[in-house]
Design brief:
- α1 links the parallel β1 and β2.
- Strands 4-3-5-2-1-6-8-9-7 form a nine-stranded mixed sheet, sandwiched between helices.
- The protein contains eight helices and nine strands.
- α5 (144-154) runs parallel beside α7 (201-209).
- It is globular, with a radius of gyration of 17 Å.
- By secondary structure, it is of the alpha/beta class.
- It has a single domain (9-240), classed as Carbamate kinase.
- 37% of the residues lie in helices and 17% in strands.
- Bound molecules: guanosine-5'-triphosphate (GTP).
- Guanosine-5'-triphosphate binds at residues 102, 110-115, 123, 127.
- Guanosine-5'-triphosphate (GTP) binds at residues 102, 110-115, 123, 127.
């Protein structure tokens, strides 16, 4: 492990569910504060950090879609949910770490936050600010994982991290199959062909075609993010070419 971070700029994808902690719905302040402090450590080590957050803790489209709701309307509601989460993260980062944060939204909602402007996002990162990308890609039919892959590529991140509840990618669901084993590394093509379920195929193909290295790790482990950015490969599963 070197004393210098192994990555200069990372994009961290958090699911909306990650923010609700034990609550079952909404946003848990202890969780956002924990995440803010994990992020603070890596920013202070000199790493530029961008975030993409989902919205499933506030709104899930499937039940309404099953009941007949228009898919596009449902997806737009989901995008608005991610804006709420992004604002909560911005607040937690600024209040509990003293870092600066900026939310940029893929849909225009100027009274609330900035629009997504790639060059401005990069400028914020260079100034040590945490940039939270909200509203997914701004389009229906795309997941926040696809948004994360897209933004990671656009800002020239060295690594995209996907924070999950398990410490990497397994041969099968470790909660259901005790014989499942964790991969240290896997190629994009293996992840795609074996349908390992870590991200949707659109997001995975975007990463593959643009050589965006991905690390899937357990966000609940204190210090794991820091270890990963310092180059410790014993945490998580890496997906690359
Ligand atoms: P630099 O001056 O370039 O270093 O960046 P800055 O973000 O500090 O300056 P800017 O003048 O762009 O923004 C000042 C504050 O206004 C920041 O908190 C921004 O997030 C916020 N801000 C900038 N543009 C918008 C916008 O379109 N909508 C909203 N709601 N806030 C904005």
């Amino acid at each position: 492990m070197s004393a210098q971070p192994a990555y200069k700029r990372i994009l961290l994808k958090l699911s909306g569910e990650a923010l609700m902690g034990e609550l079952g719905f909404g946003i848990s302040p202890p969780v956002t504060s924990f995440l803010a402090n994990e992020i603070k450590a890596v920013v202070e080590a000199g790493v530029q950090v961008a975030l993409v957050v989902g919205g499933g803790n506030i709104f899930r489209g499937e039940p309404l879609a099953k009941a007949g709701m228009d898919r596009i309307t449902g997806d737009q509601m989901g995008m608005l949910a991610t804006v709420i989460n992004a604002l909560a993260l911005q607040d937690a980062i600024e209040r509990s770490t003293g870092l600066q944060a900026r939310v940029q939204s893929a849909i225009r909602i100027n009274e609330v936050c900035e629009d997504f402007i790639r060059r401005k996002a990069v400028r914020h990162l260079e100034k040590g600010r945490v940039v939270v990308f909200a509203a997914g890609t701004g389009n229906p039919f795309f997941t926040t994982d696809s948004a994360a892959a897209l933004r990671a590529i656009e800002i020239g991140a060295d690594l995209m991290l996907k924070a999950t509840k398990v410490d990497g990618i397994y041969t099968a669901d470790p909660k259901k199959d005790p014989a499942a084993t964790r991969y240290d590394t896997v190629t994009y093509d293996e992840a795609l062909s074996r349908r390992l379920g870590v991200m949707d195929q659109t997001a995975m193909v975007l990463c593959r075609d643009n050589k965006m290295k991905l690390c899937v790790y357990d966000m609940d482990r204190p210090g794991a993010l820091m270890k990963i950015v310092m180059g410790d490969r014993s945490f998580g599963t890496y997906v690359d070419a």
